[in-house]
Description:
By secondary structure, this protein is mainly beta. The chain has a domain at about 100-215: 7 Propeller (Methylamine Dehydrogenase, Chain H). It has helices at about 5-10, 20-35, 60, and strands at about 100, 105-110, 115-120, 125-130, 135-140, 150-155, 160, 170, 180-185, 190-195, 195-200, 210-215, 220-225, 230-235, 240-245, 260. Strand 7 and strand 8 (about 170) form a beta hairpin. The two termini are about 65 Å apart.
Amino acid sequence: xxxxxxxxxxxxxxxxxxxxxxxxxxxxxxxxxxxxxxxxxxxxxxxxxxxxxxxxxxxxxxxxxxxxxxxxxxxxxxxxxxxxxxxxxxxxxxxxxxxxxxxxxxxxxxxxxxxxxxxxxxxxxxxxxxxxxxxxxxxxxxxxxxxxxxxxxxxxxxxxxxxxxxxxxxxxxxxxxxxxxxxxxxxxxxxxxxxxxxxxxxxxxxxxxxxxxxxxxxxxxxxxxxxxxxxxxxxxxxxxxxxxxxxxxxxxxxxxxxxxxxxxxxxxxxxx
Length: 272
């Protein structure tokens, strides 16, 4: 802590160590002999010089072209389809959702008043459900487990069918116009109507309509569930995000938590 004393000690020439006494030298030699080392050699010694740090110029590093993690494995995007399916009678209407692919690798497609199931594994096609000429299927949606499929109709009704028995297990009526989009969230089914209304339906109970979402002024053509709620797109060029976690889907007359209106045309939504 004494600056003057420290400067004086640094400026003095080094003082050689005092010679060891005969007794101290004899003790040192006996300890060295017991340890198997010589007094005139280092106990620890490096066999090679330590590597010098890499001083690569950072400009060289940042100016390199980007490389993938595995340059030998590249993603290949096919330019031709693996399968081509004939779809005569497919309605040419952007606002409808007429195709659904289940987790069991079965595709449901609505061709006018008939719904077909196509099995990817076997390529078998089954006529699943048929409706009168004045009734059209306007939306198709598989449940999360793939065992049921919901069908939205031009009459405003929604039917639920068992994919294994091909039997209708439920009809839910009440929408004032066609149901153009469906979205499952386990036992909860969201249905989007042409009049802009969205219903949340609990398919397991008698009074199925447990929630209404009011935020679109035109046809709802996109619905997708996420971890925080439901997103919807409509022909009014809006995307609405609904936070349904607090009400578990049972918020009657709920308004959207977020609305995005920068689109210039109808919006369909998808959440991965």
